[in-house]
Amino acid sequence: MSAAEASNKHWDSLLKWLGKEFAGRQALSEGRAMPIADVLVRATLTWEATTHQAEMAHHRLSGAFIDLNDLRVSMPEDIVAVLGERYPLAEERALRLRAMLNDVFAREYSPCLDRLRSVAMREAREYLRTLEGCPEYAASFVVLHGLGGHAIPVDERLAMLLMKEGVLAGDSGPQALSKWLEHHVHADQGAEVHAALQQWSDRDGHPPKREKRVLIPPAAEKKVEAHGTAGHESQSPVKAEKRARSETAKKSESTKKPTKPAKARARKGNA
Questions:
Q1: Residue-range domain boundaries for the chain
Q2: Separation between Cα atoms, residue 184 and residue 178, nearest integer Å
């Protein structure tokens, strides 16, 4: 049996089990009625977290900030405080939310994305994928739940579960699994299948472990090159954060006053 045949067999078996275990559940039933920018926020909150965590966090953000524009200009540490420090990837998520909303504002002159409902689905998806800090999962989530297009969002926690079940051989990443699933799931079944996958991930998945980040002032944040497909997940505000800290340290080093021995040498030379 070839690797492709094995993957298909494992997927068919998993799909039957998912249908029995999580029949009729929906990950975001109100998505079509929500403004697209709000769906993007919900998608980013659901990425590497559970549906329940995302719903509660979205409710807290709505109560703590006046609107998305207020969220856009808020300090990252204030967003983390609302999310809760124990929220999965809270610091990185806060930076991503700010980066995305600021990129939307730079492109649209407002934090509104509803015009994406009137453009071609491929164009809308590319727009979302190239937003600064936007996870591939979030872009696919908006396409599926906000725009009614065909997409199967996969993050690392779901990818780990799928690989354990033998869906795609080797160390397949979330993007590869997402593309594979989109080719093996009919468009009219996408929302139903993703709902089951998301519920499975909610119950059995675990967020990836990453180093705790140190937040920096927004003025020191650098823009991220968010274009292109390969490695898009890693092109996050966190990289900008590291670069900014490094440049700030260099600048600080160059402006330090000379030490006493250096001053003494300078006086001696002048004499």
A1: 3-204
A2: 10
> Do residues 156 and 136 lie in contact, with contact meaning Cβ atoms separated by under 8 Å?
no
DSSP state of 258: P
Query: Which single residue is written with the structure tokens 């998505």?
Result: 31
Residue 32: how many CA atoms within 13 Å on its side-chain side?
5
Give kind and range of the element (H or E) at residue 245.
helix 237-254
Cα(75)–Cα(195) distance, integer angstroms = 33
Is the domain spanning 3-204 CATH 3.30.70.270? The answer is no
- E strands along the chain, which residues? none
Residue 183 is encoded by which pair of tokens? Answer: 């080719």
End-to-end CA distance of the chain: 87
Residue 139: both structure tokens together: 């872009």
R_g of the chain computed on alpha carbons? 22
Label residue 251 left, alpha or beta by phi (over 0 means left) and psi (-120 to 50 means alpha).
alpha
135-192 pLDDT, tens digit each: 999 999 999 999 999 999 999 999 999 999 999 876 679 999 999 999 999 999 999 9
Place of tokens 């600048």: 251
DSSP state, residue 255: T
Give the angle 76-58-82 at the CA atoms, nearest 5°.
40
- Residue 119: DSSP 8-state: S
Q: What is the pTM of this model?
A: 0.77
